[in-house]
Amino acid sequence: MAITVKDFAKTLKISDKALLERMQNAGLSHAKGSDEVTPSDKQALLKFLKGNKSSQPKSVTSESGVTVTSKGKSSSATSSNKSYSDNIEAKRAAASEQLKEQQTKREEQLKAATKLKQEQKNKFKKKNLEKLNDRPVDVKDQLSSAVNAYKRKEKGIYDETEHQFEAPKEFIKKDIEVPDTIQVGELAKLMAVKSNLVVKNLMGLGVVATLNDFIDQETAILVVEEIGHNGIAVEEENLEEDLANLIQYKDKPKTRPAVITVMGHVDHGKTTLLDFIRKTKVVEDEAGGITQHIGAYEVETPKGKLTFIDTPGHAAFSSMRARGANTTDIVILVVAANDGIKPQTEEAINHAKAAGVSIVVAINKIDLEGADPDKVKGDLAAQDLTPEDWGGNIQMVPISALKGDGVDDLLERIALEAEILELEAHYEGAAQGVVIESELDKFRGSVSTFLIQNGTLKVGDLVVSGNTMGKIKSILDSEGNKIKEAGPSAAVQVLGLNSVPTAGDHFQVVKNDKQAREISEYRATKEKEKKLLKQKDESVGDLFENLGQEAKKVLNVIVKTDVAGTCEAIIAALNDLNNEKAKVKIVSSGVGGISESDANLAVAVESIILGFNVRADNAAKKIIEDELISLSYHSIIYELLDDVKARMSGLLDPIIKEEIVGTAEVLEVFNSPKFGQVAGCNVVEGNVLRNKPVRVLRDEIVIFEGELNSLRRFKEDVNEVKNGNECGMGIKNYKDIKPGDKIEVFDRKEEAQQI
């Protein structure tokens, strides 16, 4: 919720006018109470006020309304009050002189007291030393007594007759070193102040934080300076830079195979094309014929070895497609000739352009009825992809991925594009690259797909990726064969990492265990700090967003998937379901089966569990059954999203809709001994029902709402009177009915809300 000048003035306990004046003096453009105040506006105002605090002359206002500054200038100077101002100035000068005298006297007293204390200390020390020199050697008790007395004096323990002086305590400005992120409580300790003072200053800056919350460096420095200290931004040791500096290759770069990413809309034939090239049946293994995660494959072609990356095409996997484009050299954009450009086709084009990679278009399904390659070319030209045969620079090849027509021509075009790009890499040295995919295998543990970009990866190498690390136990090529090493552009599966790395993270071979642990722990700490900072920002955002509004309904969700890329895509798709009425909160997510800890967490936070191509173990099943936790399994993304939408809709309060059933006009009013006032009416619209609520309208304005206590026709009690008939109506607890009034009978119906 936006904070206005009026709201901010209330917080500061000053008038709107006074705040506006100060904001305008600070160079801000606010002119009225309803103008919005952003955190940057508050910081600008804070800096201005701090700059003026030391330079602004103090003023004294007299009873006559004359304001005199410390320099003796009147803010409303007139000849009639000039003498009065001079009188005040004289008094101020006298007071200033008196204050100086008092300060001088106090300093002299302080010096005298310090001198007296030192003299007494020296005298006592000399006296006891003389005693020690004259003592008999065997008189140990005298020595002990003298030493103890001396120690008492050193600690400031004097006789009552001795003078004691306590130096005045003054504020000492310090240099406070502030890291990238810091806890509020830790910042208070550095300044030796109470935590509530830091919290109060944060509130003044528009930041809501508790003792255990983390704040960023910029905010912390503002608070430090507001309290009076000097904030210094600390550049912490950056292990990431140190790690990057380790990458030094001494060999001369050599030509490497091209990495090709296949992109396009769902069901346009991407995996079918790759399947034909690989001569395997990859698509048959995918749920619903839809690719659910990135696959990376090395393929031997007549033009040499190529590495292909297959990315999902439907909307939920935008982030995965983006990652695919950023790890590739050439993009094959597959467009169905009978379907044309679709939203995900445009998205794939944007990702490829953003990554700055070459694009080769495969116009697929030319063998189907309704295929129109020229229309596809025209649509692509509108997207700034002009075909070569139209005078552009984009190669477009008509193909049939199912039959193989045109595929050889497509491979030749790709080889030509790779030759033009002159792709090179270092082959000797530590390997580095990108994690294409990762999963947790029940028997093999963490399994990751690496795309090597430089160097050679070997069995036994120590690898760090994100905050995961481990020694490579096994390397498998795209056909599942064990190999001992792999070079640039190779897509391989590796085993041996201590946990599942995040798809899209970089990996790098390091020298030893110590270095690997340091980097892993450093990244884990940074990730934790970022999460805490993000959680605080989200909670504060929700607080201000929902201020004065009805609270959103929240569906807590735990997501477990088979591979990391799918998990990432599902989380992104779930977050897209959020609206002004309901939201999905991802309590936890990860790769692997649903465990006992997942089930316990679901109980603690009242969450549902979504499993995508994974299942719950026996321990988790028992908790889920005993605690009646909602668990659903899915293998197709659309079904999962539909399931969540239905659950979110179930959280929403039903919409109450009113429907007017009938209207009767009051003709006469009678008094009944049994029912009190009875209105003789004529039903002019619809039907009048006895068991429905009613409203009384006078001059089309509702003046009463209640229910009927009688409905009669020809002295008989009835439950319904139809349009055009006369009847007698008695309204419960209402005695002000008049001829000409209308009695409206209505019905309330609940309607479920939909996401």
Count of the domains: 7
**CATH homology-level superfamily of the largest domain:** P-loop containing nucleotide triphosphate hydrolases
Class of secondary structure makeup = alpha+beta
Low-confidence stretches are 53-85, 135-140, 157-165, 539-550
User: How many helices does DSSP assign?
Assistant: 19
**Rg for CA atoms:** 41 Å
Q: β content, as a range?
A: 25-35%
If you consult CATH, what is the topology of the largest domain? Answer: Rossmann fold
Largest sheet: 6 strands, mixed
Structural account:
The chain is of the alpha+beta class and 755 residues long. The chain has 19 helices and 36 strands. The strands form 10 sheets. A 6-stranded mixed β-sheet has the order 9-10-8-11-12-13, sandwiched between helices. Strands 15-16-22-19-18-23 form a 6-stranded antiparallel beta barrel. It is flat and about 110 Å long. The two termini are 23 Å apart.
Chain-wise SSE layout:
Blueprint: H1 5-12, H2 16-25, H3 39-55, E1 59-61, E2 67-69, H4 82-134, H5 140-154, E3 175-178, E4 181-183, H6 184-191, H7 195-204, E5 214-216, H8 217-227, E6 230-233, H9 239-245, E7 254-255, E8 259-264, H10 270-278, E9 295-301, E10 304-310, H11 318-325, E11 330-336, H12 343-355, E12 358-364, H13 373-381, E13 395-398, H14 407-421, E14 424-425, E15 432-441, E16 445-454, E17 457-458, E18 462-465, E19 468-476, E20 482-483, E21 485-486, E22 491-497, E23 506-510, H15 513-545, E24 553-561, H16 564-575, E25 582-591, H17 596-605, E26 608-612, H18 618-626, E27 631-634, H19 637-651, E28 655-672, E29 676-686, E30 688-689, E31 693-698, E32 701-713, E33 716-717, E34 720-721, E35 726-731, E36 742-751
Parallel strand pairs: 3-6, 8-10, 8-11, 11-12, 12-13, 24-25, 24-26, 26-27
Antiparallel strand pairs: 1-2, 4-5, 7-14, 9-10, 15-16, 15-23, 16-22, 17-21, 18-19, 18-23, 19-20, 19-22, 28-29, 28-36, 29-35, 30-34, 31-32, 31-36, 32-33, 32-35
Helix pairs in contact: 1-2, 4-5, 6-7, 7-8, 11-12, 17-18
